[in-house]
Amino acid sequence: MASTDLPEFRDWSIAAVRLLQGVIYSDDERPWNLVLASQSHLVTYFARLGLLLVVDEPEGLAYLRQLTDDEQPAGYEQLPKLYRRTRLGYDETLLCVMLREELRRFEEEELHDERCVIDGAELFDQWRGLLPAQHDEVRSRREVSAALAKLEDLGFIRKFSNEPETWEIRRILKARLPAAELESLKAQLLRAAGERGRGERARDTDGQ
Q1: Between 90-109 and 120-129, two packed helices, what is the crossing angle to 10 degrees?
Q2: Which of 31, 46, 100, 109 gives the lowest tally of CB atoms within 10 Å of its CB?
């Protein structure tokens, strides 16, 4: 196809590409304003791909999610999935719950700050407090680092500073882990932590 055969350029294409790349936040002014100005075009375009555009103006974010089976009109089940659900392990899920709790506290208390930032050392102390007393510190730091890297890849957090190490908790975590699910997930993780601790104690005993 020659370049002259291409359809006329539309500004909302910029927002469309950015949405395919990930979440758009309101502080990224140009793509955010394009989303707001061209929402109907974007909704129609992405619906044909089996994707739902979610625009949360109060939270200041826009993102795409895959239509569920119940939401798909007839014929749409034939579409290949553009997004696959990411299954998180125990460590990543535990860290998500900790960060979501921190974000909730931030929203309740720090009304004038725009970003929810947590100190890496404080985060590690919280992590250690949920583990069995005999859990190895070197191993714990390795687990936290790996979990942080995974959540950074998913866009739930981003490095805010290196010295000291701090992390910004991104608001998309609220959409992925609603408050209504938080308490249930916390209870499941506490039970799993207890079982994990008993298993480690059993292995220590067997090794003596």
Answers
A1: 120
A2: 109
pLDDT of residue 4: 67
CATH of 3-78, one of 2.60.40, 1.10.10, 1.10.3470, 2.40.260: 1.10.10
Residues contacting residue 134 through CB under 8 Å, at least 6 positions apart: 200, 201, 204
Alpha carbon separation from 16 to 4, 9, 86, 186, 195 (Å, rounded): 22, 12, 22, 36, 45
Task: At 79, give phi and psi (nearest 5°).
Answer: -70, 135
pLDDT digits (tens, 9 = 90+) for 162-190: 989 999 999 999 888 877 777 777 777 76
Model pLDDT, residue 134: 63
Q: Are 96 and 156 in contact (CB under 8 A)?
A: yes
Residue 197: pLDDT over 60: no
CATH topology of domain 90-206: Arc Repressor Mutant, subunit A (1.10.10)
Give the residue from 47, 76, 72, 52 showing the smallest Cα distance to 64: 52
Give domain limits for the chain. 3-78, 90-206
